[in-house]
Amino acid sequence: MMKKPEREREAHGRTPDAATNAAKIDWTAVKEELAAELFGNILPFWTSPVLGKAEIGFPGRIDRDNTVDDFADKGLVMHARLLWTFSAVRRLRGDSEYAAAAGRAEDFLDRFLADGIHGGYWWSTDYRGTPLNRNKVVYGQAFALYAFSEALRLEENAAVRGKADDLFSLLERHARDFEFGGYGEIFCEDWNVMPDGRLSDVDIPCDKSMNTNLHVIEAYTNYCRVRNDPVVREALESLLTFFVEAIYDKNRSHLKLYLDENGRSLESLDSYGHDIEAAWLLQEAAEELGGTWPNRLGPVVRGLAEAAVRDGITRPDGALDYETHGRIRNTERVWWVQAEALVGSRCLFDLTGEEIWARRCLGFWKYIKENIVDKSGGEWYAGVGADGLPLAKREKGGFWKTPYHNGRACLEMMARIDAASSGESGV
Q: What burial class does residue 35 get, using C-beta atoms within 10 Å of its C-beta: 0-12 exposed, 13-18 middle, 19+ buried?
């Protein structure tokens, strides 16, 4: 999450005085707003007594009106993301309630989702913790590795390190395609290959997906921070190469979402939130690896961000549409898309010093504050429909929705503002 020193970033495309061309912006005030949102609205929702009534883990669903469904299924991704969030927050503030929340998420992973026979983590359980889907979904394993790596950044722990090391070894042994590159999608409980690789009913069967491989990059980048050895670095470098060569469409600067075993695209679909999320996650990976990687990925990072805002913004509110599938455009303003746009636009401002990216960043934050944040009930709405109202049937928390995207956006923005403050002088 933390950025490299200013003098290193300047070497990767930003001139020392580039920021002086931007209009004066009080980034300190923006940081204070972000901190207030994170610590005063997002996190209290997840540490509230209402959510604490669940006997195990966190409730599987919290509706838009904050009604808790105590009988909803529980999932790997939800609890891994919660562990990541509260581990990351504890590196800033060690409040006991955050430690308790992180422990609650980790306990559920260990007691109810960990496969003690074949290794890795099952996909889901019922509300009592009984396994429902025992498949080994690579996307889910990546988030568990991401979370355990974050816990290790907070403090060394032999048990947590063992879990992280085991997950990395499992992914390399079973999910990595050493012939064509990238990582597969879904495996059976014993790690045999599943015939239908889909994360959900809305996904398309494929051998490899952009989404899975992007989040393996995210996990491996974090794992590199706590296990920076040649084997881990080689795996991350190989995956970045695959991502740029097979998933990134250099002609359109968008990402190909679904691929066959050989890396050929299976569907025409643009996901604007993933484009701009990938931009800053690729930049993070490049900075972690160092060497020539920042310069190699620079054009890809910029291309993705520019394509996302060029093709994804279609209305005067300046928010990103969700996606375009063929000729069908989904213009919902989904919470995670706006959160990633916030960070992605700030990333481009950090790299280039161009005023347009600072203005876009502030525009996304303004839209989020005015439309996505639930000021009375806490947390963020799942999204806003074409009528400008919060999506009525979408949960505020649950299997997929956690404080990971929005909490991370606040943390990342705060860190970036801090890292640049000495060189920007309020710009």
A: middle
321 neighbors 313 (Cβ within 8 angstroms): yes
Give the helix ranges, DSSP H, for 313-378. 335-352, 355-367
Q: Is the pTM for the entire model greater than 0.70?
A: yes
| DSSP letter for each residue of 389-404 | SBPTTS-SEESS-SSH
pLDDT at 197: 58
Number of residues assigned to the chain: 427
What are the tokens at 122? 């099952």
CB-CB contact of 88 with 39 (8 Å): no
Q: Which one-letter DSSP state was computed for residue 103?
A: H
| CA-to-CA dists, residue 25 to 10, 67, 309, 345, angstroms | 20, 39, 21, 15
pLDDT of residue 196: 64
Instruction: Select from 324, 305, 329 the least CA-distant residue to 386.
Output: 329
* Single-letter amino acid code for the residue at 14: R
For position 16, what pLDDT does the model report? 40
Beta strands 323-325 and 328-330: pairing type? antiparallel
The pLDDT tens digits for 39-61 are 999 999 999 987 877 789 999 99
DSSP class of 203: S
Query: Within the chain, what is the greatest distance between any pair of CA atoms?
Result: 59
Judge contact between 155 and 161, C-beta under 8 A.
no
pLDDT along the chain (427 residues), means of 10: 39 42 82 98 94 86 94 97 98 92 97 98 97 96 98 97 98 97 96 71 83 98 97 98 97 96 89 98 98 97 98 96 95 98 98 97 98 97 93 94 98 96 51
For residues 412 and 423, give the distance between their C-alpha atoms in angstroms, rounded to a whole number: 18
Rounded Cα–Cα distance for residues 379 and 377 (Å):
7
> Contact at 8 Å (CB) between 162 and 170?
no
Q: Can you read off the two tokens belonging to residue 395?
A: 């949960």
